[in-house]
Specification:
The complex is a heterodimer of chains A (294) and B (430).
Chain A (H helix, E strand, L loop, with lengths): L1 H18 L24 H14 L2 E3 L18 H22 L2 H7 L3 E4 L4 E2 L5 E2 L1 E4 L3 E4 L17 H23 L5 H5 L13 H6 L11 H15 L1 H9 L4 H22 L3 H16 L1
Parallel strand pairs in A: 1-2, 2-6
Antiparallel strand pairs in A: 3-4, 5-6
Chain B lengths: L1 H17 L10 H16 L6 E5 L7 E7 L4 E6 L3 H5 L2 E4 L1 E4 L3 E4 L5 H6 L3 H4 L12 E7 L3 E6 L5 E6 L2 H8 L2 H6 L11 E6 L2 E8 L4 E8 L2 E12 L2 E10 L2 E12 L4 E6 L2 E8 L9 H12 L3 E3 L4 E2 L14 E11 L2 E9 L6 E3 L2 E5 L2 E2 L5 E2 L2 E5 L7 H9 L5 E7 L2 E6 L5 E6 L1
Antiparallel strand pairs in B: 1-2, 1-9, 2-3, 3-4, 5-6, 6-7, 7-8, 8-9, 10-11, 10-17, 11-12, 12-13, 13-14, 14-15, 15-16, 16-17, 18-20, 19-29, 20-21, 21-22, 21-23, 23-26, 24-25, 27-28, 28-29
Classes of the chains: A alpha/beta (294), B alpha+beta (430).
């Protein structure tokens, strides 16, 4: 009986040893290619991004091609290196610096989207339209058509190019406004102003027709959240004069008053929630854009 | 009991002892992919005079490239895309990456991306897909002096071959750029482009986007025509299949140079020298074309229309007719009323449900000249025809006293070309 116990103990010991067996990963696990992101010999652009965006605001910028950041079924090309710094410094001047001036560094560090992806061409859609910007989840912003980005003083600048510039800032301000209201929601009353007029069919409505219904743009008709951020971004990018002229040119008085109510709510929201003087931010933003294109 | 225990013990030991772990490869996947990538990296920088390559994008045409890689992820490039890319070296970046296969990515914009660019304004391809080319390639095979790659999006084949010093010099000395000056032919402002080679005349038209060229010549009383694709080399251009006109065979051109002042290209084919320049009238005028054009519409009680308006001196829609609000098309309506035609812009009506005429010009039945021109003259107006602006300019253009040649381009389309200088024309569609 004793030898049986001995045997059992021996058996358990062997089984224990077997179960303890560890399979070493063969080779060197420290050198997995691509682990921790792609690497390349850093240049001027990388240094600029690191010291102007990554260090102060924890923002990463991917300007080198990575298909996995784009839609896989689209043909898109990477940006020209010559365009990367002009675009990023414009982004910093128009968007980051102006918000910082109206708030403080901490505000931008906390709320700004952390990841920019740049592409050289636009993204062509099946219906022949093009996408100039896109955002995902308040973290990632895709900017397209950098190769056509021209501001005053660059070779071949034409007044029409200001459209691309404004469109880019429209995208950025739009997405940033989303981030703000996702942190602290705007007042419920905003959703009541145009209740019943929101539609998924917004892409068949022209901006002018949307104005007549009390929306700042056609896309604003898609959803109250979009309405709110379109109000904020369009007003910032186009300026107060444009907004006043646009509202006054609307034939329908009801639509005029709706837009005025929305304007007031956006202004109050920025004041009450973020302690930002919206009109002052608007003046700064519009002036920075004008400086780039005029 | 003891036996059973012993049995279990020995079986367990036996199974444990039998376990064999023998990997198929003697290195881990990471080690192997790292080795492959570093082999390719070493190969890419192994040619101090760089690499040459030929690319055939999905939309056709043959393009030549020159690449030189360094160890700092930089690549230097020439390409025979246009005169700029053939002359000025461009620096951009590249990297090797382990995707599903080892991959070479040209990761910022370079001459290579011109072919793949989805903006048709860049390369003359289609919007959304460009010329169907690639800038992300999987590395297929590594040979001593060449590398085989295939594109990941459009499966473009790319074969890099080590370039010699002489081949690099051909780019640096502008020999390719000289050859590329041939595409200026497409920029000659005349509708008719005439090649005169050893006294023999050919009408040529060049399509730089698809790299095809069309020849027309007069032989034994009939007009012959021949189309072929072409490509460039350091010496000039090569026709994929030669033009054979009796004793004259054209298989390509060399010593190409562009004369900016005369707007002409001088070149050699074999030992014959030639020149391509604008011409003011067709090689052979289709004398009946104007009347045929006019009569087609009369018979059907229909009208001809043009959406683009007049092209003049190299500018499409030179008068900006498309800038008129709600503009739809410019029409010419033969026999609008008995004895007169109507020339007018047509507009979309306010409701957006149909077309409307706001004003028009009553022109006479064109005078059909014996040498194959049609000359228009004005009889009066419908409504108040504007005195200034795109509509007025288009009418003034229509009424030039020299009139127009007509070139039938399909069963339902004609090009109407100014007989004054052949630098102004309009395309009529049915």
């Amino acid at each position: 009986m004793k030898s049986l116990q001995t045997l059992l103990i021996a058996f358990l010991f062997v089984a224990g040893m077997l179960s303890c067996r560890k399979d070493d990963i063969s080779g060197n696990a420290d050198d997995i290619p691509g682990l921790g992101g792609d690497t390349w010999v850093k240049g001027l652009i990388d240094d600029w991004i690191f010291s102007n965006l990554t260090v102060p605001y924890n923002v990463a910028v991917k300007y080198k091609w990575d298909q996995s950041e784009m839609e896989f079924n689209k043909i898109i090309v990477p940006p020209d290196e010559d365009k990367v710094l002009p675009v990023l410094s414009a982004v910093k001047q128009v968007w980051i610096d102006n918000y910082v001036a109206e708030t403080n560094e901490l505000f931008m560090k906390k709320y700004c989207p952390k990841f920019f992806v740049l592409a050289g061409s636009a993204s062509w859609n099946m219906d022949g339209t093009i996408t100039l910007g896109q955002a995902e989840g308040g973290r990632k912003i895709l900017l397209y058509q950098l190769n056509d980005f021209r501001v005053k003083g660059m070779d071949g600048y034409q007044p029409e190019d200001s459209f691309n510039v404004k469109q880019m800032f429209h995208t950025i301000e739009h997405e940033f406004a989303h981030i703000l209201h996702q942190n602290v929601m705007y007042p419920q009353e905003f959703k009541q102003i145009s209740v019943g007029n929101y539609t998924s069919n917004w892409n068949n409505v022209s901006d002018e027709a949307a104005n007549e219904l009390g929306f700042i743009s056609a896309y604003a008709m898609s959803f109250p959240d979009e309405d709110f951020v379109e109000m904020a971004s369009m007003m910032l990018v186009e300026g107060r004069d444009w907004f006043n002229t646009m509202v006054n040119s609307i034939a329908d008085e009801d639509a005029q008053s709706k837009l005025r109510q929305k304007e007031a709510m956006v202004v109050n929201y920025f004041k009450d929630v973020w302690n930002i003087n919206f009109y002052s931010l608007q003046t700064r933003t519009r002036a920075s854009i004008t400086a780039l294109v005029k | 009991m003891k036996k059973i225990a012993l049995f279990i013990l020995s079986v367990t030991l036996c199974l444990a002892a039998c376990r064999k772990d023998e990997p198929v490869f003697d290195q881990s996947p990471d080690e192997r992919i790292n080795k492959t990538l570093s082999d390719y990296q070493a190969a890419l920088v192994s040619s101090p005079t760089g690499w040459k390559a030929t690319i055939v994008p999905g939309r056709g045409g043959i393009y030549h490239f020159y690449f030189r890689f360094n160890n700092e992820n930089r690549v230097f490039m020439y390409a025979d895309f246009d005169t700029v890319t053939a002359k000025y070296q461009k620096e951009s970046s590249y990297r090797l990456k382990a995707l599903q296969q080892p991959t070479l990515i040209f990761d910022t914009y370079s001459y290579l991306h011109l072919l793949a660019d989805p903006d048709a304004a860049v390369n003359g391809g289609s919007y959304g897909s460009g010329l169907l080319s690639d800038f992300e390639f999987s590395l297929d095979t590594l040979y001593a002096d060449s590398i085989i790659l295939s594109g990941k999006m459009n499966n473009t084949k790319l074969k890099l071959e080590k370039a010699s010093q002489q081949e690099l010099d051909e780019w640096q000395n502008g020999e390719w750029a000289d050859a590329l000056s041939f595409i200026n032919v497409a920029g000659i402002k005349n509708y008719f482009k005439r090649l005169t080679l050893n006294g023999v005349e050919y009408e040529v038209s060049v399509d730089p986007a698809s790299r095809t060229i069309n020849f027309q010549w007069f032989s034994g009383g009939t007009v012959k025509q021949f189309s072929t694709s072409y490509y460039f080399n350091a010496g000039g251009i090569v026709l994929e299949s030669p033009v054979i006109n009796g004793s004259q065979t054209i298989s390509g051109f060399s010593d190409v140079s562009w004369n900016e002042v005369n707007q002409s290209v001088s070149l050699k084919s074999g030992n014959s020298t030639g020149v391509i320049a604008g011409a003011v009238k067709p090689l052979k005028t289709d004398i009946n074309a104007p009347r045929r054009w006019w009569q087609t519409a009369v018979s059907d009680e229909a009208y001809w229309q043009s959406f683009a308006g007049f092209h003049a001196n190299g500018v499409d829609d030179a008068f900006g007719i498309n800038t008129l609000g709600k503009f739809y098309s410019l029409i010419l309506w033969p026999e609008y009323e008995a004895g007169n035609d109507l020339f007018a812009p047509v507009f979309i009506n306010a409701a957006g449900t149909g077309l409307e005429l706001r004003y028009g010009a009553a022109t006479s039945t064109p005078e059909f000249t014996a040498d194959g021109r049609a000359v228009f003259s004005i009889l009066g107006t419908y409504g108040t025809y504007p005195n200034t602006g795109p509509a007025a300019q288009s009418l003034i253009q229509l009424l030039i006293p020299q009139g127009y040649y007509f070139i039938q381009t399909s069963a339902t389309s004609y090009d109407m070309v100014s007989a004054l200088d052949a630098k102004t024309w309009i395309t009529w569609n049915y």
